[in-house]
């Protein structure tokens, strides 16, 4: 046993300071290459900037629609765009994403249309998109369950010889769940090609990180499972992209799983039913607003000459078009059939389910308004005409 342990490579231990390639003022970090990662090309950074601007405008628009009562609920990712988009942009077309309920902008980045993303948030379907078309699993509301699903798919892909990587997004609160630890352990034992990205936004709803873990960082969990771990400035999209890309490449090459913690912040409330003023101060929120991931990259791109005023205006206009399309989609009422509740429950319909369907069908038919009496309608019309 000791020989086996001695033969294993020492996993990468997370640094105490988060990996950063562009600082909070938008300047390149000197000596950042010592961490083993280099600044992405201007073309890549412009692509990341465009995706973040589009995602921010979408998120703000959806939050407004929720406050107008157009959606039942919506968990905003405002402020976390760098963490999410930097991570998912590292995936290839055939790779799979396993998101949480807060990762709608990640779906948008992967090409899911807004109306399909928002289908579940206004009560149409559990999910409105085809998971096989977009290589995205349903957004998981139960904490950490999708981590096990990601490991399962990644392990299956490895056994079949497919060069597929699974990336799963988690929150800091999810790392306190048993499912997350089972996923970490299984992935490491089986060397599954999976990347775990923990978006540490400081709170598990209202529980601060200090009351969730006594570890230096959540990335420290990685070494206990024998996999590399990285602690990254999640509001530096360049660093998130560079680190996650390396982890995806390592997984694809047979190097096994990686755990990445992105330090970020949720600017908006947990959902529209939450009151964040009960557990955090306005001063704290204001401090994090100054660390905005979009403003940071914009400053760098303008200083380097990669982002012109014309390109800035073009991206802003595209974002407004996306917001308008989202509004239009949500202003169209969906056509719902309550009997769809019984579809896709079993491959072969069971008698008990058929009876329930028939019972509901009768109830719905009985509740339908009776057709108006034509003679009465004509009388009313005639009377109305005489009054006029």
TrEMBL record:
Its cofactor is thiamine diphosphate. Pfam families: E1_dh. Keywords: Oxidoreductase, Pyruvate, Thiamine pyrophosphate. GO terms for molecular function: magnesium ion binding; oxidoreductase activity, acting on the aldehyde or oxo group of donors, disulfide as acceptor. Residues 49-321 form the Dehydrogenase E1 component domain. The keyword Cell division does not apply. The keyword Oxidoreductase applies. InterPro entries: Alpha-ketoacid_DH_E1_comp, DH_E1, PdhA/BkdA, THDP-binding. Residues 366-388 are annotated as: Disordered. GO terms for biological process: branched-chain amino acid catabolic process. Transmembrane segments: none annotated. This is Pyruvate dehydrogenase E1 component alpha subunit.
